[in-house]
Amino acid sequence: MERSSVRSGEMAKLTQLIDNEVFRAYATYTTIVLLKMMLMSLITAYFRITRKAFANAEDTASFGKGENAKKYLRTDPDVERVRRGHLNDLENIVPFLGIGLLYALSGPELYTALLHFRIFTGARIAHTFAYLIPLPQPGRGLSWAVGYAVTISMAYKVLKTALYL
Fold this sequence. Notes:
- 26% of the residues are buried.
- This protein has helices spanning 21-51, 67-70, 77-105, 110-132, 139-161.
- The radius of gyration is 20 Å and the shape is elongated.
- The longest helix is centred in the first third of the chain and has 31 residues, at 21-51.
- With 165 residues, it is mainly α.
- 67% of the residues lie in helices and 0% in strands.
- The two termini are 39 Å apart.
């Protein structure tokens, strides 16, 4: 089956997206990082339950009522560490979604696009492991910087190729 593709340097038309290999790559890696980010919510819930550290009074109901339940309204360093990792995902994956979409629509070569998407995805997964284990610095910082640099690289390509300045 022959697939139509967008030539390098041209914006894609909506009807071409389903057959556009770069867009399919973007959709694939975007789905992976979004699932990873969603997993952080489950990990946060796991740590809240196992550490019995809740932010809302109604979440403590299964541990009793009144003063007995209030002792579970607290912060926990492990819960806060996971939450900071999740927040970092939000700060980095959301820009990747928008810039990555514009990049995919700007007509990059498939190889170059895959390199950007794979490096970003790998960097975010490495960042999560570095945050949760925790690994010594500069592991977490480097994984963040690599992902950030990929997003900046894609933004530069979009500005250089597809937009009027």
